[in-house]
Amino acid sequence: GLVALTMAIIHFLPKLTTAVPSSLAAILVVTGLVIGLDLDTRNVLDYLKDMSGNLDATIAGGFPEFHIPQVPWTWETFTIIFPYALILAAIGLIESLLTLTLIDEITETRGHSNRECIGQGAANMTCGVFGAMGGCAMIGQSMININSGGRSRLSGITAAILLLAFILFAASLIEMIPLAALVGVMFMVVLGTFEWSSFRLMKRIPKSDAFVIVLVSGVTVVTDLAIAVCVGVIVSALVFAWEHAKHIYTSNYIDEQGSKVYELHGPLFFGSVKNFAELFDVANDPADVIIEFKHSRVADHSAIEAIDALAEKYTKAGKKLHLRHLSQDCQQLLAKAADLVEVNVIEDPKYKVASDKLA
């Protein structure tokens, strides 16, 4: 009931007045009801005691003191600390950039992502030498700020100063807030943040994209945001490779000299080399064959090896193969088919091939 009351106040109060932030009003009203009616419900202090196992637990604190961590400066220490530091930094940056993107969409403004990342990194390093916990921008708190009318830097600065003031001077007031009020506020944040339109898009977008969306959402809940993003990038890359592997094809014709011309269309890379090899009829092709790469692009070393293997098949069959419109990188990397490339300085494309042999 208290959760529903909190949500109702947050939803309906802005329709009556915006002089007071609806979230703050909801927390004050629900807290007042709990104290005034002496309702038996858990508050922030009860939660702290249960979580810490300490009956004297409190959120009250003091100013941090400068303190450099007393750890040995060894490689072993570095290998222990670095993975956790990397994960936390990645999670913090991803969360901050996602928050920045969301706020930009809501306010129709454009934030400075570089400034955000540099500022967050500098602040977290400073926190480290004061024994404090690092932090980042949070979607929930930012949404509460935006919904309460905050738009400028002053809103964020005010929130930080008030949070510090509560911890230093008014911890007992925060500890009295019912958990039901905080749950109601966060429920409204979730409802306001969630992209409900994505359910309608599920029927329109490719199934592979829908699968990635559901997978990343599930991994985020089960693990954390950093792992979810990594999984999403990997799965998206595999889906991209799978889809583009199907897009390679040839249009064939016999030219005036009687040579068979294969005009290759689509990207040639590790995912499409199998389909590429199946496009050619080495046994039944005439003595002179031309492969035209004008509408294709050779992407990696697997593609180079596929071209070399095809050239070897034509050579063993006693047939002459010509390769046209390959980039200079391709020509350098080809081993068995290098002599078959017809160089055209004006028309040959210029692009790089992903291969360690060019390093």
From TrEMBL:
It holds the Pfam family STAS. It comes from the Bacteria. Keywords: Membrane, Transmembrane, Transmembrane helix. Residues 249-334 form the STAS domain. One of its GO terms (cellular component) is membrane. It is found in: Membrane. It comes from Pseudoalteromonas rubra. It is a multi-pass membrane protein. This is Sulfate permease. The chain crosses the membrane at residues 12-37, 81-103, 154-174, 180-199, 211-242. Its main location: membrane.
